[in-house]
Structures are given as C-alpha cells and as structure tokens.
Design a protein that fits this description.
single chain; 466 residues; mainly alpha; two-stranded antiparallel ribbon; 2 strands
C-alpha cells in the first residue's frame, strides 16, 4: 500500500503542481478572453435560464440536467475537500478555489456547449453526448475517445469510492461499523441502479439536490451572520495567505495554489469532462443555453457551497486551533459543533449523507454514458452497475488517503484530455456564442438553426440540429 501511495502522490505532484495547473490557467484565460468573459457578464442570465426555461422534448429538462451535474459536483469535495484544502494549503487555498471556479466557468460553458452541439441518440432514443462522443464524431479519433471514456469510468468509479468513504467515516462518530455502512450503501445503490425505470437516477437527483442544498445554505448563513464580527479578519486572512501562506500550513504559495486547483477541480469539475454528459441529455433550443446552465452549476458549487464550508471552519477558532488533530469530515464535525453544539454534528452528518449519496448517483450517470460510448447494451450496463456496487462497498472500508489520491490521479488525466480537445474545438463554440449573444441583443429567445449558420450548415457531426 505504501508503494501505491508513493506512485499516486508522485503522479499527482507532477500533474497538479505543473502540467494541469499550467494548462488549466492558460486555456481558461484564453477562453475567457475569446468569449468576452461570458461566465461573468451572463451569470444573471444563466440563473434566469435555470429558473424559467422548461423546454419539452426527447431529452431531460434543463433543470434536471442541472440537478444531475450539481448532484455530482456537490458532494464530498464541498465539505471534506474544503477541509483538506485549508488544512494542507491554508486559508489562502479558498481564494484559489474561488479564482479557479471563475476562470473554470469558461471551460464549463465551452465543454457543455460542445456536448449539446454534437449530441447523439442512443439505442433507446435518449440524447447522449460529451467528450467521448465528439472526439469520435468530430475529431474522428475513436482510439482517443475510447481512452477518454475509460478515464471517465475509472475517475467516477473512484469518486464513488470517495463518497462512500466519507459517509462511513462520518457515521463512525456514532459508533456505526463501517461494515454495516458498506452493506447498507451497497444494497440501496443496487436497488436504484437496477430499477426497471432507468429514470430513477434523474428523479432521485432532482429531489435530493434541493433537499440537501437549501438547509445547508441556511445553516451556513446563520453561522456567517452570528459571527459577523470575525468575518473581516477571516477575509483578510484568506487574501493574505493566498499570496503569503504561514509556516503552519507549509509556507509555500506553490502548494497553496496547487491544492486550490486540486480541490477546486474535484469539487466543481469545471473543464474535467463529466458534466457535459448531463448537459447533452437535455432538450434545448440552443446549445449555449446548456453551456450557461452548467456554468452556473460551477458557481453554485464553489462560490456558494464550498465558501459556506470554508467559513464554517474559518469562523471557528476552536476548530482552526485543532486543525492538525482531525482529518476530513471529522474536522468539519468538530467545527460545526463549536457553532451549534451536538445538534450541529447530527445536522452535518445528515447533510453528508445527502451530499455524498447524490454524488454517487450523479457519478453513475457519467459512468453509464461513458460505458455506452464504448459498448451500448444491457450487458455493459449490468457490468458497470456491479462495478459501482463493489466500489461503494470497498470505498466504505478503504484507507482515506489512498482512495482520495486515486480519484485525483484519474481525474487529472481525464481533465487534461478534455481541456486539450476543447482547445481544438473552440472555434465552433466561439461562433455559437456570437450567434446566441446577437439574438439576445434583439430580445429574442435564442434558437440555433443549423442551415442558417454558414459555420455549421455542411457539418454532418451536428445532425441532431437539422
């Protein structure tokens, strides 16, 4: 196990300390410039789309796709990941998570717009898409599409182990055996994934996301405003330590930025390539609409929910003083107890059950789509269901460090492939965005008509828009 951890740590050190960090920053800055900061200028419009657009058609609704992707994004990374980021990289890591989310909004917009543009229909007539599909159909590279699909399956399978691990660790506080947790989680997962109605995953996510997010946000706001006198100092600490970390957290700005990218990417998945598979499943009148909705999901995840987790910790002097004595979810349980007493620990345990389990369902949606990109039949579906149940069981029992490291490693390769592919296919997104914004300027509800756009009229890869 020590050798495995050494290999994982070495790979992650190179990927997040150099390769992925450089690629992420440069490409997200390029997209921000080319798309004229759409992630900021059209953020309010994105919220309006989410709240008012209910288009009917062969796919799921825009809100449902938002819930599926948010279910995957909003999970362990929003609590345990933030605790780890601050414990390892210091309070300044939160600043870099914010910056990565804002820059990453351009990547989230681009990848989901591409997924909508190049979506296909599977054997059951449902819309499917994402990097696995447009690499094959547009770039004409079936081998790279296969590699990406395999990376996606491995990444989200590892993520499901992480979610299960967090749940089992949270419940040990109440003397619930990790073996009992493993069995219960595995049975529930099997019942949902093997349900005759495959839409059970979508329905579960649409229910769980609002149910878990709203109470958590309200409690976070309560903690924020009842500790208002500490807020200015917390903000000052975040910004100062973003550029000058204290020795307590290693004292390295490189480590702080790297941890901010690593935990930010795990949390919001901007540019990673998973969320576009939910975006492609939606029915919409213009590809950019799903790009904007998925972009807003990134902001919901990091700028709102991760910030709440961070402030619950940073506004607790007791928890910050004991930051080296606890790890992950146990640190957060200690922090919330310092604010709300024992009831806070019960509340956060319930939240982590919702957060993490909804992520298991959202992650499986991506595993299923990645599998269908390789082999679209019932046997393949059954195999990945068994694989998911097995990793949920094993993840509940696994060592915290190993399961997190493996998830980060697979994620880094998946994200690197996806970002490079987006860079190659950025021209169609630029054209679509210009088309969308021009229609908005004349107060139209934007509609994409392939034959009316000279950029796409002869492109057979966008056949679903004929």
């Amino acid at each position: 196990m020590e050798i495995i951890n050494l290999i994982i740590n070495s790979v992650n050190g190179i990927m997040y300390g150099y390769v992925l960090l450089i690629v992420f920053v440069l490409v997200s800055l390029l997209f921000t410039f080319r798309l004229r900061g759409i992630q900021v200028s059209h953020s309010i419009h994105a919220l309006k789309l989410l709240l008012t657009t209910h288009e009917k058609g062969d796919g799921v609704s825009g809100f449902a796709s938002f819930c599926i992707s948010t279910a995957s994004r909003v999970g362990t990374g929003n609590i345990t990941g933030v605790m780890g980021a601050i414990a390892t990289g210091g309070p300044g890591a939160l600043f870099w998570m914010w910056l990565m989310a804002i820059l990453g909004g351009s990547l989230a917009f681009t990848e989901s717009t591409l997924a909508q543009l190049y979506k296909e229909k599977d054997v059951s007539g449902k819309f499917v898409g994402g990097a696995s599909y447009f690499i094959r159909s547009k770039l004409k590279s079936p081998m790279l599409a296969l590699v990406f699909a395999m990376m996606m399956i491995l990444t989200y399978t590892a993520f499901n182990g992480i979610q299960a691990n967090t749940i089992s660790n949270a419940l040990t506080k109440y003397n619930i055996s990790i073996y009992i947790t493993a069995i219960i989680l595995s049975v529930i997962t099997g019942l949902i994934l093997l349900s005759p109605k495959r839409d059970a995953i979508t329905h579960a996510c649409v229910f769980i996301v609002p149910a878990m997010a709203i109470p958590y946000i309200l409690i976070g706001l309560y903690v924020f405003f009842t500790n208002l006198q500490l807020v200015p100092e917390v903000f000052r600490t975040i910004f100062v330590e973003a550029f000058k970390p204290s020795a307590l957290f290693g004292g390295s700005i490189g480590a702080t930025i790297s941890i901010g990218l690593q935990r930010g990417l795990f949390s919001n998945e901007a540019g990673m390539g998973g969320a576009p598979h939910a975006a492609a499943a939606a029915h919409t009148s213009h590809p950019c609409k799903q790009g904007l909705i998925q972009m807003f999901s990134v902001f919901t995840d990091t700028l709102l929910i991760c910030s709440i987790s961070g402030f619950i910790l940073l506004l607790s002097p007791e928890a910050m003083g004991a930051i080296k004595d606890f790890a992950g979810i146990n640190l957060f349980q200690f922090a919330i107890e310092s604010h709300l007493g024992s009831i806070g620990s019960y509340f956060i345990t319930i939240c982590i059950l919702f957060f993490s389990y909804s992520s298991i369902l959202g992650n499986f949606f991506y595993i299923k789509v990645g599998t269908s990109a390789i082999r679209d039949n019932k046997l393949a579906y059954f195999v990945v269901v068994l694989m998911t149940i097995a990793i949920v069981f094993a993840g509940s029992l696994a060592e915290f460090k190993t399961i997190w490291g493996a998830g980060d490693m697979f994620m880094s390769f998946m994200a690197l492939i996806n970002i490079i592919v987006m860079l190659i296919l950025s021209s169609p997104v630029h054209s679509l965005t210009r088309n969308y914004v021009e229609q908005l300027k004349v107060h139209k509800d934007p509609v994409f008509i392939k034959k009316d756009d000279t950029h796409f009229c002869n492109d057979d890869s966008v056949s679903q828009w004929d």
